[in-house]
Amino acid sequence: MSQANEQTALINEDDEELEGCSGTPPCNPKSCLHRYFPVLILICFLSFGSYFCYDNPAALQDTMIRDLDINESKFMAFYSFYSWPNVVLCMFGGYLIDRMFGVRLGAIIFSMFVTVGQVIFALGSLFNIYALMCVGRFVFGIGGESLAVAQNTFAVKWFQGKELNMVFGLQLSFSRVGSTVNMNIMQPLYNLIDEHVHGYKCLGIALFIGAGMCVFSLLCAFLLSYFDKRADRVLKRKQISQEDMIKFKDILTFPFTTWLISIICVAYYVAVFPFIGLGLVFFEMKFGLTPTSANAVNSLVYIVSAVASPVFGFLIDKIGKNVFWVIIGIVVTLGCHMLLAFTFINPYVAMIIMGLSYSVLASALWPMVSLIIPGHQLGTAYGIMQAIQNLGLAVISLTAGIIVDQNGYLILEVFFMAWLCLALIAGVLLYLFDANKGGKLNLSAKARALQKANSESQIQDK
């Protein structure tokens, strides 16, 4: 089976009835039962290990700085080295998924990069070699964001239609479960290991546990590829011709709204992830929390989004109005940063609300790309979006560490608020440009279903 057909949607098609096991709901790729279990479960766990390991440094911030004898700037470099390769590589990763590897082989290759990168990171700590740890994060980053591109492509392929917002919310939920588990078990695990092995060796052993989570996600990539290949064979997917496959110059034809979505993505995410990366010490210093309590507060965005993302995704599927929800998410997050910066209100309040607003934005933002970009170009489009996001994260992670070292956390919060204002401006522009083109991105769910029905009717008439 050619990889060129791997982005073809697997639902909403009038395939002939299937016989034998392939025709029964548990085995039929078109059935809800098969698509939800095992396929959706595997899609959700595909990036579990990656998200678990991404914030290993944040969960062990104090410990890592002490054991490795580094400052905040060097600590935040672990996040920058993750992001730098993705400034370019995840864009090419998406292109390779669309053009060469296909989504199945791409998911396996990028999962391998994630696993190997985490192993190198852990080895660097075990032998107290800071440069090797940076190399590990770089290799980890090569796979991490491109794996997210593959995950998004799988989600659109299997669930494009009325379920997509919910599915994006659910896969985000599982990813955040990985981050939440990391935030809440890494320090206790370190303390347990510290009873027998101390210092940077203890840290290295703890990081090897994260590598085990990456192996689990790699196994999910193999299983998902098997079920996806089987679905293509059973349903006899039509291949995309070489003429229809994406060419790199096609990027220049992407609509302006695609670039506005990318700007919103980077301007919003740089005000969330770098903040969480530095949040442990912030909550200890400003609110006088213990390391354990500060870790709990710092992980609230992940905990809340793990629960709320599929719920908001389901609601957005039923209501529509994606651009409206994106703007709401930005405004509420801006308010949360203001509470943290200028008040001493219990930080649990701001972080819980931030988790809700993050869930709303992510559930509404990412599916919009599939509404304006053809299926055979989605990997490239998501790759570009991830590349722009990681350029921002790489630069802002370094800048945030320098700001904290030189000016403190109040200036850092003002810095994050400025980025959220930029995201808000881009959100308003997205609404205006989309409205000028017919308002496709901000349609209600009912209007979108009617538009789709009319389009299918016109195709049948032809």
Description:
Residues 36-438 form the Major facilitator superfamily (MFS) profile domain. It is found in: Lysosome membrane. The chain is an all-alpha fold. The chain is built from 19 helices and no strands. The protein has helices at 32-45, 48-54, 56-59, 61-68, 72-83, 89-126, 130-159, 164-193, 199-235, 256-269, 273-287, 291-298, 300-319, 322-342, 347-365, 368-372, 378-407, 409-436, 445-461. The protein is globular.
Task: Summarize the helix and strand pattern as letters.
Answer: HHHHHHHHHHHHHHHHHHH
Spans of at least 5 consecutive residues whose pLDDT stays below 50 are none
Tally of individual helices: 19
**Could you report the average pLDDT, rounded to the nearest whole number?**
87
The strand count comes to 0
Q: Largest sheet, if any?
A: none
How much is the radius of gyration in Å?
Answer: 22 Å
Structure classification: mainly alpha
Work out the strand percent.
under 5%
Q: Which descriptor suits the 3D outline? A: globular
CA(first)-CA(last) distance: 30 Å
Subcellular location: Lysosome membrane
GO molecular function: transmembrane transporter activity
Family: Belongs to the major facilitator superfamily.
InterPro entries: MFS, MFS_dom, MFS_trans_sf, MFSD1
